[in-house]
From TrEMBL:
Transmembrane segments: none annotated. SUPFAM superfamilies: Invertebrate chitin-binding proteins. This is RE22940p. It comes from Drosophila melanogaster. The lineage of its organism: Eukaryota, Metazoa, Ecdysozoa, Arthropoda, Hexapoda. Keywords: Signal.
């Protein structure tokens, strides 16, 4: 890619009206992706900048403070080059989501990974035609070496595929590890310092304490909803009025996010009063409150508080007792440290300053 193209595409991106979205609005957009969502990507990155949209090779997002704060699509059929963070010509850029699309556009012969099946690879003949090769049982295609190698993991299946080259990000599959993304590839690594063995994805640094409590896997999810599930009555007038209005670009907009009323982490997207509601869920480790996905400790959810978190225990209101998430059984801290601090996962002498501990509804 030449300097002229880079300059040109930078202009293209800055010319697009950047829409600032509230957390829930971003989540909704991201939910349309398959595999990793744009939220998943931004959550792992302490820096800021463009990322690719894992569901559409023409689309991009912008991460800041570990959230998707803007998104858009490249103009004129340009393909988003996530490693460069710019929109580039389709005839020279691999479409990260479709080998068919890559081959229909590129003008010179090349091998490309099939993002839908790592046992296969695709060959673009440079005239728009695609053909497939087979790595055989147990084999996977490695696009970086253009060779079939032995699995089990697909080398292309990393969040680096959608992220800038030469950045460090957290490993979504192994909290506390980091990945150095280089040209769309990266492997999970541990912090080398014995004094600071844990990678903190929020700061981008290795630290002494484990920052991973309460994230990175689910427990207590009911499975009664699926993302995108519709509900004809979720957006009725009462629900709509009760939900916080949203401000986008400084203007109040006419859509709302409404709790599903059943889980602590699920909500419906409502485009208008009486519109069909679409269900979605907060990122793991967070729960839904007043239009946003927030720390479970910051509000008092009266449904199963173990939903969508990775904590083995969650505080009951008042923080004198806790629920053992795996069984639902209630436990209590010893009398010499009677309060359960669910954020740090310890029993303490002083009542933690979380909304859930302030609540006295059940003691
Ligand atoms: C790619 O497409 C652009 C715009 O259509 C064109 O200017 C450029 O010459 C093409 N490059 C190749 C290698 O065909
Ligand atoms: C992936 O590709 C291989 C080789 O072409 C094929 O045998 C296999 O059935 C494919 N798997 C899926 C899930 O399509
Ligand atoms: C739709 O949502 C409303 C409000 O959350 C709820 O009372 C109702 O049971 C839901 N209906 C279905 C079919 O899930
Ligand atoms: C929403 O539906 C209710 C019941 O069908 C109806 O009374 C009300 O006028 C509707 N509101 C709007 C804004 O369409
Ligand atoms: C909850 O904690 C209180 C002490 O604060 C204790 O008396 C009670 O037995 C606990 N409840 C359960 C179900 O363990
Ligand atoms: C807890 O309650 C006290 C007194 O009502 C209040 O000052 C404090 O801000 C509350 N803390 C939280 C986290 O809600």
């Amino acid at each position: 890619m030449g300097g002229t193209l880079a300059r040109r595409t930078d202009t293209v991106i800055s010319a697009i009206n950047m829409r600032i979205c509230v957390v829930a609005a971003c989540l909704l957009m991201a939910s349309q992706a398959t595999g990793y969502t744009m939220d998943d990507l931004c959550q792992q990155w302490s820096g800021y900048g463009y990322i690719g949209n894992p569901s559409n090779c023409h689309a991009w997002g912008y991460c800041k403070n570990q959230e998707v704060v803007a998104w858009g699509t490249c103009p004129n059929g340009l393909v988003f080059n996530a490693q460069a963070g710019s929109c580039d010509y389709a005839n020279t850029t691999v479409c990260s989501t479709s080998a068919v699309e890559t081959c229909s556009n590129v003008k010179s012969p090349m091998y490309v990974a099939n993002p839908l099946n790592c046992t296969e690879y695709a060959y673009c003949d440079g005239t728009g035609q695609i053909s497939y090769g087979d790595c055989g049982t147990g084999g996977v295609y490695s696009a970086s070496s253009t060779k079939c190698i032995w699995g089990p993991a697909c080398p292309q299946d990393t969040i680096c595929r959608f992220m800038l080259s030469n950045i460090f990000v957290g490993d979504p599959n192994q909290c506390g590890n980091y990945i150095n993304c280089v040209n769309g590839y990266g492997t999970s690594e541990k912090c080398s310092s014995t004094a600071n063995p844990y990678y903190n994805k929020a700061t981008g640094n290795c630290q002494s304490t484990n920052p991973c409590t309460g994230e990175d896997s689910n427990s207590g999810n009911s499975d009664q909803f699926t993302v995108g599930q519709t509900n004809a009555t979720a957006c009725d007038e009462e629900a709509f009025k009760a939900a916080d209005p949203l401000t986008v670009n400084g203007e109040s907009v006419d859509y709302r996010y409404v709790s599903d009323g059943v889980t602590c982490y699920g909500y419906y997207y409502c485009a208008a009063v009486n519109a069909t509601g679409y269900w979605n869920q907060c990122p793991t480790g967070t729960q839904f409150n007043a239009g946003k996905c927030v720390s479970p400790a910051s509000f008092v959810c009266t449904h199963n508080r173990c939903g969508n978190v990775n904590n083995p225990f969650m505080a009951d209101e008042g923080c004198k007792n806790y629920t053992i998430c795996s069984s639902g059984i209630t436990g209590s801290c010893p009398t010499n440290a009677p309060y359960y601090d669910e954020v740090n996962n310890i029993c303490t002498t002083k009542i933690p300053d979380y909304a859930i501990c302030n609540s006295t509804a059940s003691t």
